[in-house]
Amino acid sequence: MRIAVVADGEGGGWLQELGTARPERVPDLAEAVRDRENAAGPPPRWVWDAWEDLYPDLVRAGVRVRRSHDTALTEALLLGHDGRHEEPHSLGAVWARLHGRPVPDDPVRRTGEGAHAQPALFGADRSTLPPGTDRLAALAEVHDDQVRRLEALTDSGGLRLLAAVESAGGLAAAEMSHDGLPLRPDIHDRLLTELLGPRPVAGQRPAVLADLAARIGDALDQELNPDSPSQVMRALARAGHPVPSTRSWVLREVEHPAAPLLLRYKELARLHSANGWAWREQWVSERPGPGGVRLGRFHPDYVVAGVVSGRWATRGGGGLQVPKALRGAVRADPGWALVRADAGQLEPRVLAAVSGDLALAEAAAEEDLYARLAVHVGGDRDRAKIGMLAAMYGQTTGDAAPLLATMRRLYPRALDHVDTAARAGEEGRAVRSWLGRTSPRPHGWDTLPSGTEGDRTRRAQGRFTRNFVVQATAAEWASVLLAALRVRLARLEPALPEGAGVVFFVHDEVVLHVPADRAEEAVRAVAEAERETRELLFPGSPVRFPLVTTVSDEHSQI
DNA sequence: GATACGGGCCAC
DNA sequence: AAACGTGGCCCGTATC
């Protein structure tokens, strides 16, 4: 059963069971969705324009659903598959194309508009439909059109699966953003104070940074702002140490007393500006916990498939770059546990699976793929890893060249897979992931200049498509895993308490926060989700995707 | 005062 | 040792 749903902006909305029933007006949308979700029988698939506009409000109202069809995410996949990445994909745009009307631009979403935003009672209409249009009818029409287009594809199975798991990703994103990653404010504070000194008044440099800046000035015989690359370069040049840039690896080679001070300053300044006290105030919610502890939750705004490869992005808060120095502050609540599952060496394993390279698959059947590669290559593990990464990223300089030759001989099908993708990119053609996500063609390709400049662009596009076939498929593996894990966690008996489940996701890693006595079940659910993912994506392949799963009260304990 | 852009560094 | 893919974000600087 599929139920189309639109909100009225006042807490109510309209529902329609597609194909059979008539539209129905409901005064309380959350209650209506909850009732139908909890009804006997298989769960409905909720059809809506964009998860960001509806589901965060449902989650805030305590409602969770199991399945959805997100027309905006699906449309982006369909358009991309057709080589039309740049065309708008919101509901109004699809409807306009169906009716030969002018196509509206997609709405611009700003920081703080997603799950992190204040309750909005199923906010204003973001569909971009013309005023007065029957939104429910338009949604049903667009849904039917998308189903038809998906079925018409020759490789429809892949893209249908991708649309389904990506829609589920929207559900997971809203739920994770709502629940948040547990982060203890007091520990975060302690880490910052140890490194930077006590919290300064707004706009001031913390004591440690101010001291470093002064010592840098002394060492270079002039006052300067260490945050200004041009000032630093000028001062170093005057001191007899000209540098081409102030990048850390450049500074590391400079033999001047100011260099180590500058490096330390840059490291700490970044921590302060990117993840300091101001960051915590904006992105980490706080509430009292048992025994007087303050409990915090980091709430990033996820952007599902926000990256061309289908990886997720985040909007604000730097959600995908929680620095290692800070992970000690990520702690389970008292009596709860963090379950962290990390897919190690995901991309080379994906390459082994999609290329069907038997030798690489044999290595990918091992727990440590790179160690086995080293045996094949006859060198050490680090060199084997460099060679593999060079093949997937398109590196040609430095150490990589001789290693690549070895790789090409040992893993011909794997290398042919990425080389073929690279050639497509260099020739301006698109490539597809395992499930059918399609690479965009670069802007202005047809007017590319001949000669060096054009060649550089062509080679860069080759590296992009070379990497796309691997990275985009790895992102699909992660999406399927997340969707499968969500389903399994929802099926646990007795149900997990409010706020328990997946609380963080970044590319190839998930973090779950569960009551300590449910951690074993959570670990089992992760393992089962991995098996299901592998069987769904690569049935019969010997490639393994080992998930390193750790249970602790702390994120940094690995 | 707002905006655009590049440098630099964080993550996977 | 430092060009090799995808990003986000802060800062300084230039510009309107």
TrEMBL record:
EC number in record: 2.7.7.7
Domain DNA-directed DNA polymerase family A palm residue range list: 323-518
Keywords: DNA replication, Exonuclease, Hydrolase, Nuclease
Gene Ontology MF terms in the entry: exonuclease activity
Catalytic activity: DNA(n) + a 2'-deoxyribonucleoside 5'-triphosphate = DNA(n+1) + diphosphate
Domain of life: Bacteria
InterPro entries: DNA-dir_DNA_pol_A_palm_dom, DNA/RNA_pol_sf, DNA_polymerase_A
Region (Disordered): 434-458
Pfam families the UniProt entry points to: DNA_pol_A
Entry keyword Phosphoprotein: no
SMART domains: POLAc (SM00482)
Top-tier EC class: transferase
UniProt cross-references to SUPFAM superfamilies, sorted A to Z: DNA/RNA polymerases
NCBIfam families from the UniProt entry: PRK14975.1-1
Protein name: DNA-directed DNA polymerase
